[in-house]
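Slide 14.
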Amino acid sequence: MTTQNRIELACKLAMQHHAGQMYGKYSYMLHLEEVAGHVKDIVRKGLFKCLGLDRETLICLAYLHDIIEDTPCSFTELGGILELEGIEALYHLSKNLGGCTYESYIGRIRRNRYARIVKIADTWANLDNSWKAGNTKRIAKYTKQLNMLLED
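Slide 15: predicted structure.
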């Protein structure tokens, strides 16, 4: 499968499963596009190469990062888009799997290279939107989360 096909399939699957969901007053796809935009910036700057990561998998994960957590999508539906490394990252990104505390969830993400990059992009998008909305509670939450994700 070509690179563009994997990314297009990820985007289409996300659109299909997140249809009708909202991110504030906007379609949830706006949030997914913002996260994908941050990941694409990382890819353009070549920062993923030093970590030995696949650029297509990172972009696909940006579109799919909430699909298991927030929709009825199953891991089996993702087989044509993500390989095992991507499926594992998506597992780590899904809060409702693994029955753990928030700190354990972030720790789990930090141990997976793909999940960590995508969650940083997701957190950055959430933080940016919180700043725009002037939501100080969410700014504090996402600043703390970003700091936790960036720790060694």
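Speaker note: The mean pLDDT is 91.
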